[in-house]
Write a structure and sequence with these properties.
Helix content is about 80%, strand content about 0%. The protein is mainly alpha-helical.
Length: about 150
């Protein structure tokens, strides 16, 4: 990754780390009540919504036509799969049988998506002619705005 890419990619990696940290915290929590699980899911959903908005609403749109459009489409499809899993979890009650298993599946899909972005997408950006600093600023501004709502 070149230094000009770092701004956009670093904003996304920072959001990835927040999400992965929330997953680890949830997975390490023991004996949560159903309502505590639902609150943690709501907090997690907020983080996931921000990341998804940044990636699909700004980042992928900016790079799709100037980089590997097929690769970007694959990551967009992965976001759609994650949205379906999240919606399924949101329809469940925290004490409901299968809730934890559903979250485990959601978390695994998110972890796979993030790993693939790190290993496939971000390195593929090296040859793209984009203003990664400007994209990074847009991502950061949008993230800050979503966090104040």
């Amino acid at each position: 990754m070149t230094s000009t890419q770092s701004s956009a990619v670093e904003v996304l990696k920072s959001e990835h780390e927040k999400l992965l940290s929330a997953i680890r915290k949830y997975e390490s929590a023991k004996g949560l009540s159903g309502s505590e699980k639902e609150r943690k899911l709501a907090d997690f959903t907020h983080l996931l919504t921000i990341l998804s908005s940044l990636e699909t609403g700004i980042f992928y749109s900016e790079i799709k036509d100037k980089c590997d459009g097929e690769l970007i489409e694959k990551f967009s499809e992965s976001h759609n799969h994650i949205k379906v899993l999240l919606a399924g979890a949101q329809r469940m009650m925290g004490e409901e049988e299968g809730f934890d298993e559903h979250l485990k599946e959601l978390f695994a899909a998110i972890e796979k998506h993030i790993k693939e972005e790190d290993e496939k997408l971000f390195p593929a950006l090296k040859g793209c002619e984009l203003d990664f600093e400007a994209i990074g600023k847009r991502l950061g501004d949008s993230r800050d705005e979503m966090n104040t709502k």
